[in-house]
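Progress note, project year one: complex with alpha-D-glucopyranuronic acid.
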Amino acid sequence: MSRNKTFSILAAASAMALTLSACGGGGSGGNDAGGGSEGGGTMRLALNQTEQHPSYITLTDFGERLGKATDDRWDIKVYPNETLGAQQEALQLVSDGSVEMAIVSGTQLENLNKDFKVFNLPGVFKSIDHQMKVTTDEEIVGDLYTSLEESENFTVLSGGFTQGARSVYNSKRPIKTPEDMNSLKFRVQESDVAQDMIRLMGGSPAPMAYGEVYSALQSGVIDGAENNEISYLTQKHNEVAKYFSYTEHLVGLDYLIINTDTLKSMSEEDRKAFQQEWEKTVKDFTAMWKKQTKEAHQKLKAEGVKFNQVDKEAFDKALAPIIDKNLDNKTQRELYEATKAAAE
Ligand code: GCU
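Model obtained:
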């Protein structure tokens, strides 16, 4: 991102923070929001998806229900399309309190606490239901989800939004084997595991922000990317990369993060309502996700996307070394084992 764009996002965010505190709102900047007293206000939520994506729809609904449940003390305004910045910037804004919440992909959290990478590894989740079972289990994720409170001043909310199965797509040819990926450049999310993954799958990785992918594909800076059908469709990447190959290498996860001071400024009752409404949002999202994935597939087919199956065994074999290579401490190994055990 250019310095000017970063500056204007920060300026816009701090202008809004002033508005929030002027009306006695919540957030770490709020005048009367501290110390568990009766805080409140509109929390801004940074999102990189369009208004058609299930996350925007269910988060908007979350805000409305939160308003009702707290007698309008708290509500949420969702800023879609990276308006408040790409995920890397949004994370910083939540950390310093100029924005209260954001949805960020697991890859972003991996950059702050390596233990998060366990959930970013290919094959770790067998299905969406397995992923939801693990990430809503306090015993498994409790420590992980609060691990960034001290260093980054944000809390990760239980569960998350599934990214479903991610597959590769490109503008050149159908991918059936790892060899077909050779000499092609694929955009990846900004993390070491994501880059490693594409290398092992046979391609070359190009890390960049989500919002930059369309033009990078269009201009030929990259040949392809990897994502789920809903993101592929809502970002219109099918217009510039029509070969979608079902590698299904990873079931990814998006996390809701909230500034820890903001969370602490909620009264006990409001915090409970917030947690309850969030849990409902996760369930709504998962149901909507499954339905929209089928619809997206039909739409994409009608728009001329060439779908194909791949040699799964060959990709599994190519990706196998990534697990051992990345489990580099006891916490990560235990997290990995607990995740595997939950699938049984
Ligand atoms: C998915 C995910 C986003 C992520 C994006 C990406 O769309 O839901 O959170 O940013 O993939 O590939 O960057």
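The two ends are 44 Å apart (CA to CA).
Residues 1-37 have pLDDT under 50 and may be disordered.
No further modelling is planned for this target in the current period.
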